[in-house]
Amino acid sequence: MTGAERSGGPVISQMTVAVLGGTGPQGRGLARRFAAAGLDVVLGSRDPARAAATAADLPGRVRGSSNADAASAGDIVVVAVPWDGHAELLAALAPALAGKIVVDCVNPLGFDQQGAYALTVEEGSATQQAAAILTASTVVGAFHNVSAVHLDDPDRSTVDTDVLVLGDDRAATDLVQELAGTIPGVRGVYGGRLRNAHQVEALTANLISVNRRYKAHAGLRITDL
Question: Which residues, in sequence order, are bridge partners of residue 190?
């Protein structure tokens, strides 16, 4: 694992967080919150100029770059790209992502006249697909169900939701829970191993239905913890 470390593990506050797909709603919103928490953030995009322009509009230590440069720069790398380009991008960036914690928040969803629905993924989920491609990385699933609208609202001081964190490596899931906790109002909660990622990704389709019916930006809370 790269990045600043202390006895017992990495120090979140001294790590650089890269966000691939950082100019999209989810990526930009996460970048905003991580930067506001004092973290160094690198926004990646297929269009580096667009990434630079987006970074200039965000508070804190944020810079824009290509996805490849962001992957190389990050200690923790968040994948927030569209599902259609997920596998292709990760395959291309696998060497740059080797030895790093990669946080996948991609939801494989389709849309028709009845609304959103979960797509079938050969590997089981987007997170498992990432793990199958990035065999030299430690893949964790997280941030699937967080409202991009709330994340990217500069007037909203807190984002009141829990984030389910999934993975097979305890140190990595603990670190990503800590990363989630840098966002005011957010709590990272261990949600199981990578094999459980499908239902967490698919749940986003249900939340979209909730949001459309109630004109909201709903999140999740885990009770009795």
Answer: 165
Task: Provide the domain limits for residue 42.
Answer: 5-214
- CATH number, domain of 159, equals 3.40.50.720
Element (H, E) at 163: strand 161-166
d(CA 221, CA 131): 27
Give SS3 for 188. Answer: strand
- Of 79, 68, 73, 15, the closest CA to residue 42 belongs to 73
Q: Is 33 helix (H, G, I), strand (E, B) or coil?
A: helix
Q: Concatenated DSSP letters for 1-14?
A: --S-EETTEE-GGG
The per-residue pLDDT for range 160-185, each reduced to its tens digit, is: 999 999 999 999 999 999 999 999 99
Q: What is the pTM of this model?
A: 0.94
61 lies in some domain: yes
Tell me, what amino acid is at 181?
A: G
Where residue 9 falls among pLDDT bands split at 50, 70, 90? low
